Amino acid sequence: MNITKNRNLGTIWFFFFLIAREDLYILISTGKMWRRQQGKLQLHMSLLLHLLSFFIVISLEKCIVKVSGLNHTYRSVGSLRLARIQKHLDNINKLPLKTIKDIPPEMPKLRPNNDSYTKRAERNGSVVVYSAWQTWHGGGDGCPDGTIPIRRTTTHDVLRAKSLYDFGKKPRRSPALPHSLAPDAITTNGHEHAIAYIEASDEIYGAKATINVWDPSIEVVNEFSASQIWILAGSFDDSDLNSVEAGWQVNPELYGDSKPRFFTYWTSDAYQKTGCYNLLCSGFVQTSNKIAIGAAISPVSSLSGSQYDITILVWKDPKIGNWWLRFGDNTLVGYWPAELFTRLSDHATLVEWGGEVVNSRPNGEHTRTQMGSSRFAEDGFRQSSYFRDVETVDSDNSLTSAEGISTLADNNECYDIVDDSSDDWGTYFYYGGPGYNPQCL
Description:
By secondary structure, the chain is of the alpha+beta class. It has six helices and 23 strands. The longest helix has 22 residues, at 38-59.
């Protein structure tokens, strides 16, 4: 991360601070001199601290930070705000803690299917699809038993948000489209979607999909591109929408880079006051010592090259009522406690799978932030991003193929979606797009 001060005084302060640190070190390390020349040294220290405070105040100017090619300007920050931020960081950057070993008594019944390493017949011949994992595993398989991995949050992470209150939260939204048109797929606040959804007459108790992983380009730092599952109940109109969400996203404002990262989210009041990403507030209870929520996913897919995907399953424990999350074929990540929710305390009424981007219309035109692979759905395998083995969990705690799904794209000229089914991939769809182009202005 390259930081450039917008005033030369920043450099002056930095130089002075180095001198001050050395001076303080010398003073502290020579305690005998303190006692012999106490009066002089106290005066010396007083003047030093006053000068240091003066330069610190001067240094609190805006600075421009380059985040993976994206410029972000930090606002001036006072000591009181920094103290509040540090207190918040102390709450979420926990020391190693014992996890809650609350394994759900009953896993959903899985239908037979091929695993991620099996060769799959495609239109262009036989190809191989691999499972993606997490970059940090390069240093080992996981944390010691009884602990969980937590991605450390920094002061700069918080400063990129609009405020401490907004940090780690999705933007609050306006009333949605009619319920029959999938309530989360709305264009207010610049959010655009290309999704498949099923609004079941029967009760829904979970959803599953295997999601192709890419690293879409983000045009400006306050935009993001996500590919995820939403499990929903309630409505925006009454501000009682409950949602649990999981997938991957590229979100420079939240993470400070442009890497695809595994994420979770929840809300119980239509994104107003409750909920957050990952472990940035109380809510989601992690039990796995192998998965770090918010960590980068690697490797990623490439155009005309190798394809990598992750499998995500979210379902309601039929006995206790918690909503559990599984990553891959057998890694239980943790759960959202039932008491977090009102509508989802019983069951879901809607499931969505697909892509979401933020379009802030930089320079007065549609964003160039990409969805999925950046290619439209019609380009197909090894070009377009996909969801495969799209399934739901029914009242019998059984996984069934999500047949009869509907699709919705807010703007087909920018991002689109095409669904289909096959013996190998069950219900699946391709989706995505480049954003700005001659037809998307």
